[in-house]
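Researcher: Structure prediction, please.
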Amino acid sequence: MVQEGYNKIARAYYSHRDLNKFNSELEQFTQLLPENPHVLDVGCGAGIPTSKYLIEKGVKVTGIDISDTMLSLAKKNVPTADFLKMDANHLEFPENLFDGIISVYTLFHIPRKNHGEIFRQFYKVLKPNGILMINSGVSGSEGTSNFFGVPMFWSNYSPEKTLELIKKVNFSILFEGVLQRGGEYQYWVFGKKTKE
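Model: Predicted structure follows.
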């Protein structure tokens, strides 16, 4: 449902988005990275704003998404990043590859029963001291709704449960809290992979 939905609405969705609403979080994330970093953008969409912002800061970016339409737009919008069709539930990367992982406006489209395993995979493919930045919904719920004229799937744990799952895989928490961005509220977490 998510894949088909975004394939249909990609262009309309981006024409209505505030593409600068979380620039301050992107800046904070960038400042936490080492020199010459490589970042994975999970649920990269059309590459704007996250991949584009990072590339302009000199970051090497690999973006993944399940929507062919989104990936096609991303390759045009951010030609110097690498974009792959890949499901966030099954990351096909070696261990200790990335200096950072960003997954924003993505987790709440994935069944919440999978979130713990996704965080475990994030931890696995991050280098020691790697930085994680995610957001999710502000209340526990699961279901579908009309979104830009198509059915869309949503799934969230409560912030408390999301934080518990992130801590469970040994991320140390740099920041967690509900933030309002672009008139919307989401739960944000910055984490760091503890040294192995």
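Model: The beta strands are 38-42, 60-65, 82-85, 98-103, 126-136, 141-147, 150-156, 171-181, 184-193.
Researcher: Thanks, that helps.
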